[in-house]
Amino acid sequence: MNCDYCKDKLSALIDNELSTEERFLMEEHLKTCPSCAREAETLNQLGLILGGIPEETPSPTFVQTTVNKAAVIRRHSLWNTFFLNPAISFVRSAVAFVFAPDGHGALGRKDLSSHGYLRTFDDSPPGSFADIYLTVIQGGGN
Amino acid sequence: MNEPEAKIMAEVAEGKLSAFRTLVEHHHKPLISFIARFTGDRNSAEDIAQEVFLRVFKAAKEYKPQAKFKTWLFTIATNLCLNEIRDNKSIPKIVDLSDLHEQEYPSIASEALSPEKAAENAELSTAVRKAIINLPENQRIAILLRQYNDLSYSEISKIMGISLSAVESLLQRARQSLKKSLSPYL
Fold first, then answer.
1. Domain limits at A80?
2. Bigger pLDDT: B151 vs A110
3. Whole-structure pTM value
4. Nearest to B24 among A43, A54, A63 (CB)
């Protein structure tokens, strides 16, 4: 083994990434070559210096903040699943068709007095999802 | 990926936040350290690390348990770091010692040392960070993954999308550059 080849492979030797045979040949060469042995020693020393740098200390809130953000993503994902899923969209449309307000739906509806207080602030204008939802949970129109 | 982590990832894919928390708790320190050493910007390292974890959370269903989780995590981190460096022109290519001194980095075993020794360690710590940040990007990625995250050449080759011999060559060149930069300490 010549010294150029040995020096090229020293990094892999340190990283324990050589085959058994290559490793054996390298170690034999290092026993008889002071120059390559010195280079190997320097690289080992370098590894110790690099390894002496401690890890960063993350802020104590990092884990919690990250989990909180994942929770927001999950909520959006569930919301999108509900509104963008074709099967659910179909059911929603069917419900809207059956319970459409102002007498235009299949079941019709004339009397809004059951939740008239909402009409005061118009939080669920006729035809809105909130309006359909209220209609469904309150048993539909008359 | 070992069996418990594969199980944890399956739970993350189901949207279980407790499993996600376990994953973050286990990997956040080495990940933040990798990003800080790679970008040379400790302040943005946590933001990038958070983005990495959130991408893991969003893509958990696409994760194949055959791949080692750490390899997948560091592939995402490496790509985000490269994007960050390319997008953020303010990150200097060559870093001065003074720039690194301004950020608060932990120094080598600074507990219970004399002020002189602590100052020496802080200087060495800064010199090492400077030497690493001044390596070309691909050498920097390879040496950080190998030296600090204990990844094999095969794992590094998957992360970087290069051959095993290219990884070997990058590490050899990185160590030669570091040897030159850190010669006063060797």
1. 62-137
2. B151
3. 0.75
4. A63
Asked if B70 and B1 touch (Cβ cutoff 8 Å), the reply is yes
Residues of A in contact with B109 (CB under 8 A): 52, 54
Asked if residue A46 is part of any domain, the answer here is yes
pLDDT on residue A142:
41
Pick B89 or B18 by higher pLDDT: B18
Quick check: is A142 in a domain? no
Q: Is the pLDDT of residue B145 over 70?
A: yes
Q: Is residue B42 in some structural domain?
A: yes
pLDDT, residue B120, reads: 81
Q: Give the number of domains in chain A.
A: 2
Q: Does B153 touch chain A (CB under 8 A)?
A: yes
Residue B66: the pLDDT is 80
What is the mean predicted confidence (pLDDT) over B167-181? 96
Is the ipTM, as predicted for this complex, more than 0.90? no
Distance CA A118, CA B102 (A): 59
Residue B143 lies in a domain: no
Any B CB within 8 A of A59 CB: yes
**Chain B residues whose beta carbon lies within 8 Å of the beta carbon of residue A11:** 168, 171-172, 175
Residues A97 and A129 in one domain: yes
Specify if A16 maps to a domain: yes
Which residue intervals of A1-138 are DSSP H helices? 3-14, 20-32, 34-51, 62-84, 86-99, 116-121, 129-137
Residue in chain A nearest B20 by alpha carbon: A67
Residues A30 and A6 sit within 8 Å (Cβ to Cβ): yes
